[in-house]
Design goal:
By secondary structure, the chain is mainly beta. 13% of the residues lie in helices and 33% in strands.
């Protein structure tokens, strides 16, 4: 089990989000009032390619442990800075398989669809930050650390301090890929 450290949303298309006391997750849509809410893709580059694609990026989650790692490299990053809706503590989000469900608070449930693929906007926020969110595993494969993306399965309010319960999918597990 883990917990929610912070929640955030923002109505316009901006890199960082605005911290909030709570957010409302809407089934099949995402975070109420957030620019990325909707059944179809809302990220501007993806809309240009095909606006009818399903929105697999309704809710963005980042593990707070990444912030400590980035701080050790000289960066200052706080919850909401990297555009996430939910900042978690105590869960290795990147190690979870695709299809994992996270029960957030009393009733909200999201299903992890894949990894966030960091983009150049991270460097516009702080120069060199994009490279700091990437790594290589022992086999030399690229490791993306900028969080995971998810869709809303069950709606509900999510607040800092809420517990997070992890529900793994049936095996065989599939590793997370960028979405």
């Amino acid at each position: 089990m883990g917990s929610v450290l912070a929640v955030s949303a923002r109505s316009g298309h901006h890199f960082s989000k605005t911290p909030a006391l709570s957010i409302r997750l809407l089934r099949g849509l995402g975070v109420a009032g957030d620019a990325h809410m909707g059944e179809t893709v809302k990220h501007r580059s993806r809309v240009r390619n095909d606006p009818t694609q399903p929105n697999l990026r309704q809710v963005h989650l980042i593990h707070a442990e990444l912030f400590a790692e980035l701080q050790a490299k000289g960066f200052v990053v706080q919850p909401a800075d990297l555009g996430e809706n939910v900042t978690t503590e105590g869960i290795d989000l990147l190690a979870l398989p695709s299809g994992t469900r996270l029960h957030l608070g009393e009733s909200a449930v999201v299903e992890i669809t894949g990894l966030r693929n960091p983009c150049i906007q991270i460097d516009r926020f702080q120069q060199g930050l994009m490279a700091a969110t990437l790594d290589r595993d022992i086999k030399g494969n690229l490791v993306r650390k900028a969080g995971v993306m998810s869709i809303v399965i069950s709606e509900g309010d999510v607040r800092p301090g809420d517990t997070i319960v992890v529900e793994l999918p049936a095996e065989p597990h599939r590793a997370l890929l960028p979405v």
